[in-house]
Amino acid sequence: MTMTIAEGTEQDRWARVKGRLRSSVGEDVYSSWFARMDLERVQDESVHLSVPTRFLKSWIQTHYAERVLTCWQAELPEVHRIDLTVRSPLRNTAPVKENKAAEERVNDRSERGAAELRAVATVPVSANHEALGGSPLDPRLTFASFISGRSNTLALAAARQVAEGRRGDPVMFNPLYIHAGVGLGKTHLLQAVTWAGNSGTERKVLYLTAEKFMYGFVAALKTQTALAFKEALRGIDVLVIDDLQFLQGKSTQAEFCHTLNALIDAGRQVVIAADRPPSDLESLDDRVRSRLAGGLVVEMGQLGEELRLDILRSRVAAAKVHHASFDVPLPVLEYLAKAITHNGRDLEGAINRLLAHSKLNAQPVTLEMAEREVRDLIRPQEPRRVKIEDIQRVVARQYNVSRSDLLSSRRTANVVRPRQVAMYLAKTLTLRSLPEIGRRFGGRDHTTVLHAVRKIEALVAKDISLSDEVELLKRQLQE
To answer: Within 13 Å and on the Cβ side, how many CA atoms surround 9?
Structure first.
């Protein structure tokens, strides 16, 4: 039987319940999670409430159901159940005055950060990626459109393993850390994981660029909603972070570290991509690098010629869906695969140019046309990227010492000179900073590295024998 409560009395009670709720959880949490909650009706022993998104419903049921019930029972002891539903986004509900006030507060702040943070709880869509406030996704970047080859097989297999997991399954490797150069498919894989994970409603998968993570955290600090921001992130089942090398700022990195630890310790999956391995992320705190390295670290290598040809074929096939007459002869594809070696984006750009030229000029694609249209995409072959580990190995072999000798504190002449040469090569052949080189040579101070570099520079200028040795080592490392 429905309780006979006058409309005014019912809303008055609802206002008092919200006042109790605000006092209980604090203004920040209340504004983020409860400002859009509406009272539908009080019936029998149940209170029926509604919220605009399924994610918000799930979050409140998981974290605040008992709190809401307690606040209602303080007004109506006979209430024993809270029924929370998702209202239609098309419903034109007359907002409670308090909701208007909450929106006005956001407008008064006139900061996009506040609005972006609110997106976690207020976007009137289903519990998908956008409802969680994630970075935009490209609908083309799915597992179905990802072209696999020898250089990315392991990364693809690991990403699929993550995407196919279910809530409650044991996490096999955490975090999954994928690194590669520009245009080799990192973002494609991460977005594919997000699309696959959000195809159902069981798990909440959130894709964020490092820039979006930083912006959200800074905006939360400015608008005093940091607690809600943290709780929202830590309620995610799979957190996907792209371009981690751009994560800057001590406080932001500290918050990322806390979030990473909280998710991993709770058995939630974390997937990260960057343009270098964890050990080379010099701007990140040592604790973060250590935690990242503790998961599965996978490198996606350069695209081989065969893989480049497969990518080109797939891009042509995708273009033919909308332009049936577009055709690229096999000799042209083979030329592009051989000549454009830098990354997958250049390959896609080449196909787009041929399509545009063919359509706008009503001409078939020929080898001569291709050579003319893509000449600026044919870049000189980049020298092999030298790693500090390679330098230590080659120098140790050249001077008949062990790699552990180079990293040790030994000061004998037969170890000091090779160590200085290795540090000099690390500074001249890599982009690593002096502090990072020092860390990779047994935790030495950057001044020690600087001394070694200057020492070898001075000796090479006047010692022909040493100069020849150094040049030989450089050739070996760059072959």
So the answer is: 7
